[in-house]
Amino acid sequence: MRRKVPSDLAALEGKSFDLDKAMTIVSFILLFVIVVIPVFMIIYNAFFYDGKFDLALFESVIVDKENISAMWHTVIIAFAVTVFGTIVGLFYAWLLGRSDIPCKGIMRALFVIPYMFPPFFGAMAWDMLFSARGGYVNEWLMTTFHLAAAPVDVNSIGGIIFVEVSYYFPFVFMQVVSALERMDPTLEESARIAGASQGTVIRRITIPLVTPAISAGALLILISSLAHFGVPSILGFSKNIYTLPTMIYAFISRSGGSFEGIRQGAALSILLVVVVAIALVMQKVILSHGSYDIIKGKSMRPTLIKLRGAKYPLLLLSIFTLVFIVIVPLVMIFLEAMVKAYGLPLIFANFTFDNYKSILTSQTTLDSIRNSMFLSITAGIICMFLGVMIAYVVNKIKPKGKEVLEILSVLPYSIPGTVLAIGVILSWSGTLGINLYNTLWIILVAYMARYLSFSMKSASAALQQVHPSLEEAARACGASHTEALKDITLPLIRPAMVSGFFLIFLPAMRELTTSVLLYGPYTRTLGVQIYSLRDAGMIPQASALASIAIGIIIICNAVVTWITKDRKGV
Amino acid sequence: MAKVVFSNITFHYGDKCILDNFSLTVEESQIMCLVGPSGCGKTTLVRCLLGFIKPETGEIWLGDKCLFSAEKGINVSPERRHIGVVFQDYAVWPHLSVWENVTYPLKKRKFSKEEIKAKAEHALKQVRMTGYEKHLPSQLSGGQQQRVAIARALVSSDDVIVLDEPITNLDAKLREEMLVEIRMIQKAVGTTILYITHDQEAALQLCDIMAIMNETGHLCQVGKDEEIILQPANRFVFEFIGISNFIPLVLKEGKVYFSIGEEVLYPEGSADIFRQHPKMELGIRPNNIVFDDRSPLKAKVKTIVFLGNEFDYFLTFGNKELRVQRNALDAIQHGKFQEGETVGLKFVEPKFYPAKEVAL
Question: Which residues 63-102 in chain B show a CB within 8 A of chain A?
């Protein structure tokens, strides 16, 4: 028979204040405020009107022809981006992970670069090069070959797919490269010893073992592309090509921030959420099938496949790909930033620093940089601590309902930024008694919801490495719970906290999707400012600001690499 | 130096009962080895003692200090129990140097600077780690890390040190050295030591008193190592400590037979054996089986393994395999057997235990 613990025993612990309990309660409350309320408000406003259940709005949104075509575009683009992105990522991952191609280290670093920059920078660059109206390359081709029409039009579904692929393939690339690295090479070697040919080994051993990594990367591409705003808005608006996120944006900006427009946006958001949810369910199903434990944590030297004659052609192909997807857009932005006026040939005589001068003296632009800095640093620091706290509650305290906590903190990552922004508007613009609309705080709340999972995951992974006996040893040595946390646990996960901060700081610096729906007259962010400069036709100025953003991103990335490189003893 | 008393400790993990009314006393300045198979609740007991988990019933005393009492509602928090502990994985803090690791408990207990320095230096000297103060744990070998952990435990408590399977990760030679060292440190300091292990050889080497726990978390026997080996309290202890052979017996018309495929008369067997249980087995240690050509009990030598100081014979006795150990010197003097030879057997000091229920 199980004897019950006397209930008053718990009260006699000797302390009235219980740190664990406090952290658990605070975690639940914060996630409720940051995540649950916005999600609830979207659903409520899409289906209820004046407190009554009302499907009329939702129905009108669903049957709208434009909306249906936007949904199709979203699905087609996301599907194509996923397929091509996976193929490209997988091919280069294999080439760099398993073949004897030269210059691996540098190429690997270069292939991850697109991951650092916002895709809408690429869209801007390609738009300058291949726009049907006045793209530099198109112009040149038309004059050289006396063509009547532009041969390539990047303002098309194909163009959108191409640009998104070039920014999203690193998802698969990075996942697969690391899986290949951590895979025990004896698994392949024993297949060779057992008499399998090289081709059979790749087909029957290597590919199945990295399948979980491939599908994880592919679904990441799928979800990111479904929710993506920047590229389709820059390339698609001029030709009236809409996807769901850009459609939602159009609804809201058209209505000028009226409640009716936001409600329509909310209804449309539900459609987008449904599409993303289907993708997430697919992810769950696919990933649950393929978890192998034979991928080890430590890296080993795999046997490399000799490319022989194909070595240099493949090297050339890789270099060409890198130049095409990484170098060309970046160079284009910098060149355009220096040109006197959009459309002028890119020759030395037309170059000037006036664009930099004008944006750096413009108060709005300087404000936007300051706003972004403030938002990114604040969101980074707050989320860093919140992430550690929630990760600690989930991993170490393990209260009842920890699964709820875990899901809630990761959920916003799967919610498209556009949808999240609408949820935040609906929640914090007065309906619940707090009005943050048109202030930086509403953007901060959105960023926190959006990026909390980054620091949470990073802290979780680190905490799982901290064996409970380390903290217990401190307790046995006479340290109180708080002291053990301060002296042992926190110092041990400090590197993860720092990288968690940058994981939030960097994407927040260049954020566009949510800020573009939340900004007010005095709360533009860097991304929004670039976007609206370009929207206003000031393309050279937009490029100049983008090039400054690129500079900031590169410097910050260098700092991260430098910080995370030499951690001591851990 | 203080004695540790567990009385009537009960603990459930979920619905599973880990400890049921468990009582044990470790006398002052004694090395007590708590031995039991993996998963029998040894670590749970340690965690109760350290205060990381709360038993449902009973009391825990350290000297004259009550650490836990369910009835009186006492539960001293871990940091105020002053128990030195060496964890299974050492739990040496990887971000602190050896010196910082060892002085941490002293700082927490607010000793003066001079005292901290003196105590930490002394502890490091005892574990022969002087000169490594500035090293980080990642620069030390497993054995060295363990010694740091022991030094840290030594400075955290003069009363009692708990070692939870601390040497399982070391190689055989280092393990031996560590055991000798622990023994020597204990002699010098006089601390009470509770040593938790599933490794009976380490236990035999180290302890003053052994306590044997069975799979269900019950204490089977507490006693000196010779007692445990020579007078095992029950079949579990007999089987768990040392190597053992079991031969099933049957009683027919007042005579005892070995049931080994065929039935072979056991001449020394008396019907009394069957008084406690209808199904009995004879249990015997390998070195209590003696070769005797005159004995009517015959077995065949299957394989011989030479272990350096002794010979291991594996014999076929009917459908049973018996393991017999013989001192190497003795074997060489009296001539050893060849594989395939038939030998006569004699059982010295056999034990009789009820047969195990065969799980179907």
Answer: 70, 73-85, 87-89, 91, 93-95
